[in-house]
Amino acid sequence: MANMIMASSKTLIPSTSSSSSVPKTPKFQLPQLPQIPILKTEIKNNTLSLKSTVSIATAAATPTTPLPSLAAEIEKAALFDFNLTLPIIMGEFLFLIVKDTSTEVKQLEDEATAIMKAARAKISAALNQMKKETTVEVEAKLAEGRVKVEVELAEALAKLEEQKVETIKALY
């Protein structure tokens, strides 16, 4: 009963037929609560006394609670039983979500994959270009270094040969 939405064209409070033409509104009587003794000094310090707070809370809670005699009317006025219809509605909702967005999601995934492939191809081409350029530069520097080493080696061998000749002359 708590999981139902209610609608009814009938009034919840049955009207009583009387001889007077003025309709009387039913008066609800608030339940009487035991009174709590309160000291006068405490009332002066608070803006609302405990007694008035309890009476306000009771007055606010009473109209919101359904009367037991109205249970049959509430059951008749039930439009939706959420324990029955909620799983069905959730299934339909999920079916429609999957049905409506599956092609769009696949299209977006394909576009994203194509963009990523193009970006990867562009990056790999740029990396290959940079590798080629650096390889050419490194080979040029290595060739320069080899030439310098060969020149220094030739000079060192020439000096060594001169020293060898001088040493042989000095020995004879």
Descriptive terms for the model:
mainly alpha, 4 helices, 66% helix
Please outline the helices and strands.
Elements: E1 4-6, H1 40-45, H2 50-61, H3 71-76, E2 78-81, H4 82-171
Antiparallel strand pairs: 1-2
Region (Disordered): 1-24
InterPro entries: ATP_synthase_B_chain
Biased composition (Low complexity): 8-24
Overview of this protein structure:
The protein has 172 residues and is mainly α. The protein has a domain at 34-65. Helix content is 66%, strand content 4%. The chain is built from four helices and two strands; from the N terminus they run βαααβα. The chain has helices at 40-45, 50-61, 71-76, 82-171, and strands at residues 4-6, 78-81. The longest helix has 90 residues, at 82-171. The protein is elongated, with a radius of gyration of 50 Å. The termini are far apart. The model has no long low-confidence stretch (mean pLDDT 78).
Short note summarizing the structure:
The protein has 172 residues and is mainly alpha-helical. The chain has 4 helices and 2 strands.
